[in-house]
Design a protein that fits this description.
This protein is mainly beta and 212 residues long. A hairpin with a 4-residue loop joins β3 (48-60) and β4. 7% of the residues lie in helices and 64% in strands. The protein contains one helix and eleven strands. The radius of gyration is 19 Å and the shape is elongated.
């Protein structure tokens, strides 16, 4: 867990180290909710709600294109329910999530700059826990399940952001995205399971470095 946090902070600081020498850079916090599940063959997982929060750095060029990187604490997982054998539980998977996305802005400037984005996302597993476990109608105590899941999750993310000007070089952000895990999150390859997460966040962007 500590190594994941250190890796994420190094990544963010490395991205921010060039800010003062650049134009049109911005950075800020982001917070919201995840609606996540686990998908795969014979999956009995349904959605659960979790927290997503962290920070970002972003660069938007003079034309329609830009790029941004986030470091986010992301609570994923799902609620398992298999009526055939009367088993159920809630699986928590908490990640340090690092998406890097390319953005396409629909306009060059103005008080409202909506944009679409797409790119890869890396998840570093920080903790895993199974709660409210029932098997064959019998209850079981909560358990740490980190050893059952892979330490890394590689996926892709895409979404839409509404970007509103608040004052000079400060903007309010509304972000909706979907992140699909492309690798098996289980250490045991069967059954195959991948992350599936909808995220809805609010953010605030501050201009950094020289004005353009």
């Amino acid at each position: 867990m500590k190594r994941g946090l250190v890796f994420g902070m190094i990544f963010l600081f490395a991205s921010a180290s060039t800010l003062l020498a650049q134009q049109r850079w911005s950075a800020g916090p982001r917070i919201g909710v995840n609606v996540s599940s686990l998908y795969g063959k014979s999956s009995y997982y349904g959605p659960k709600v979790g927290l997503i929060a962290g920070g970002f750095v972003s660069y938007s060029s003079i034309n329609h294109f830009g790029i941004s990187a986030d470091v986010l604490y992301s609570q994923r997982g799902g609620k398992y329910d298999n009526p055939s054998d009367r088993s159920s539980h809630t699986q928590f998977l908490n990640y340090l999530e690092i998406p890097v996305v390319a953005r396409y802005y629909l306009n060059l400037s103005g008080n409202f700059r909506p944009n679409f984005f797409v790119g890869p996302s890396l998840g570093i597993l920080m903790a895993a826990k199974r709660t409210h476990s029932i098997n064959q109608g019998q209850s079981y105590p909560d358990s740490d399940t980190k050893d059952e899941f892979e330490p890394l999750d590689l996926g892709g993310t895409a979404g839409f952001q509404a970007n509103f000007k608040v004052k000079d070089r400060q903007r309010f952000l509304i972000d909706a995205r979907y992140t699909l895990g492309l690798t098996n999150v289980r250490t045991n390859s069967s059954p195959w399971l991948g992350n599936s997460t909808f995220s809805f966040t609010l953010g605030y962007s501050f201009g950094v470095g020289r004005n353009y």
